[in-house]
Design brief:
The protein is α/β, with parallel strands linked by helices and about 350 residues long. The protein has 13 helices and seven strands.
């Protein structure tokens, strides 16, 4: 794009029409004038851009076709490959979305989830990171800021960063920072099964705790010994095991998952999410009976006071709809008292994530 390029009137009109879906008229004029100051896409970070709107503007432009490298209104308005990469950086491909997950390899937004929540009678939700990206974390915080039923975001930071405390402070001070309720890392993707016990990682998790945040443990059976050592070494850190540590439901086995999770449950600083189970079972043939032994074990060891329901939407769609996941969770916890059910399906999350 030539130096000093200015958007055409037609381009700005399309831009305005796209943004009208997201911003009211009072805010729109200021937003446009600031976004294009100094009327250049140099680096795609104009000095005057409102950072609180930047991720949404990028997405609006992309979806409206205004950032396509081959289909802009005027040849002068085409983005270079470098500019296109920068503008779409927060919407980069998710490496874990492999071909077998093609059914969910598309954009999901609040407009997709809202009717599911309404149909299920669920009032609020927490969004959770899916990749190791500060940009995604900022995007989730912005989503929580702009979406009434998203009450918090569990984000990501580099736990090995010596400046992690400063990064956390920056996130907290940024747009939507008050909605940062926890941190997570895809521990089960690390080559080293003992990654959690590395000194630099443990230092980072201490910083998370010092910021008053819990840390979600995304682990499988392979990483449970390290999670156990972490929980014992850092008793002041609030830890939440995601997806019951992904038990081998499809295989129908319990050990060594059962023994290791029992040991973790003996630690008062560890809670567990009742989530992600249908995708650990056979996607096409799972039933309540497949899930029950694992949920019964979690209820026995953690108790209703330290279990938190999670839908794992939209990943759950590989095996079940949102409503089916919720109904399955209700069935396998049917033996709980009304107070215990209220804890599992809401109150425990409010307490752990301080909503």
């Amino acid at each position: 794009m030539p130096e000093g390029w200015e958007p055409s009137g037609a381009w700005l009109q399309r831009f305005r029409e796209a943004l009208n879906k997201y911003f009211d008229e009072i805010e729109l004029d200021l937003l446009i004038s600031d976004y294009f100051a100094p009327l250049s896409f140099a680096g795609l970070s104009p000095a005057g851009v409102h950072k609180k709107h930047e991720y949404r503007i990028h997405e609006v432009l992309r979806r409206a076709g205004l950032l396509a490298t081959t289909s802009c209104l005027d040849p002068r308005e085409r983005l270079s490959p470098g500019q296109a990469a920068e503008i779409t950086r927060v919407h980069a491909a998710y490496p874990w979305l492999t071909d077998d997950l093609a059914a969910i390899r598309r954009r999901f937004g609040p407009e997709d989830l809202a009717p599911e929540l309404a149909a299920a009678g669920v009032e609020a939700t927490i969004v959770v990171q899916t990749r190791s990206s500060l940009d995604e974390t900022r995007e989730l915080l912005g989503l929580a800021m702009s979406t009434s039923f998203v009450r918090g975001a569990i984000g990501w930071v580099d736990l090995t960063d010596p400046a992690i405390a400063d990064v956390l402070a920056e996130l907290r001070a940024g747009f939507g920072g008050q909605h940062l309720v926890g941190l997570r890392h895809q521990v089960h993707d690390e080559p080293d099964p003992a990654w959690l016990t590395r000194p630099d990682v443990m230092r980072g998790i201490r910083a998370v705790a010092a910021a008053g945040l819990p840390f979600d443990l995304l682990v499988r059976t392979r990483e449970l010994p390290a999670a156990l050592e972490l929980g014992r070494s850092l008793p002041a850190v609030r830890l939440v095991i995601d997806h019951l540590a992904k038990p081998p439901i499809a295989a129908g086995s319990l050990e060594p998952w059962s023994t290791l999770t029992r040991e973790l449950a003996s630690l008062d600083n560890v809670a567990c999410k009742l989530s992600g189970l249908v995708t650990e079972a056979s996607w096409a043939t799972w039933g309540i009976g497949d899930l029950r032994p694992y949920v019964d074990h979690a209820l026995e060891t953690f108790g209703a006071g330290r279990l938190v329901f999670g839908s794992d939407w939209p990943v759950c769609l590989l095996a079940a709809a949102y409503g089916d996941v919720l109904e399955a969770a209700r069935q396998v916890t049917a033996g709980l008292s009304p107070g215990e059910r209220a804890a599992v399906f809401g109150e425990n999350a409010r307490m752990i994530y301080r909503l």
